[in-house]
Amino acid sequence: MNTQTTDRIVKEMVLKAPLSRVWKAISDAQEFGEWFKVDMSGQTFRPGQPVSAKMTYPGYEGMPFEIVVAQVEPERLFSFRWHPYDIDPNDDNSDEPMTLIEFELEEVDGGTKLTVTESGFDNIPLARRAEAFRMNSEGWGIQIENIRKYVEGQS
């Protein structure tokens, strides 16, 4: 059955790395910044804490990266909220609802299953919703490959 939703993006991959290694890559701010391409200097992840950093991703260098950490359940779940595809410095989207990004981990044969889910797009204003969904869907495809290379030690 092929179901399509406009409210959530889900990406899954089995990473050939131990669960503890993948957990550190997603839950340690410095490691997260390495593969996600964000300068996380001096940042830590704690539930309820906002994080302000600058992107280093090619084409987006210096753009703000702002999240609010939601949950940290060691070696199982790391989540945060953000304003999706918030890249136009002339648009103030701070009063818009945020989407929720969840990194869920599960130990499986051959490594660690990572499921990345971004949900809440149905609450984003209609004028931005489709483009935010499209761009973030593409972006998560790239980022899940970035973390795979990072934890599997490939460049």
What does this structure look like?
The chain has 155 residues and is α+β, with helices and mostly antiparallel strands. The chain is built from three helices and seven strands; from the N terminus they run βααββββββα. The chain has helices at residues 19-27, 29-36, 126-151, and strands at 8-15, 38-39, 50-55, 64-73, 77-82, 99-108, 111-119. It has a seven-stranded antiparallel sheet, with helices on one face. Helix 1 (19-27) crosses helix 2 (29-36).
What fraction of residues sit in β-strands?
Answer: 25-35%
Distance from N terminus to C terminus (CA atoms, Å) equals 36 Å
Shape field: globular
User: What number is the mean pLDDT?
Assistant: 93
Placed side by side, the strands forming the largest sheet appear as 1-7-6-5-4-3-2
Q: Low-confidence spans: pLDDT under 50, at least 5 residues?
A: none
Order of helices and strands: EHHEEEEEEH
Give the number of DSSP strands: 7
Please, how many helices? Answer: 3
The helix-and-strand class reads: alpha+beta
Q: Work out the helicity level.
A: 25-40%
State the major sheet.
7 strands, antiparallel
Radius of gyration: 15 Å
What is the topology?
Layout: E1 8-15, H1 19-27, H2 29-36, E2 38-39, E3 50-55, E4 64-73, E5 77-82, E6 99-108, E7 111-119, H3 126-151
Antiparallel strand pairs: 1-7, 2-3, 3-4, 4-5, 5-6, 6-7
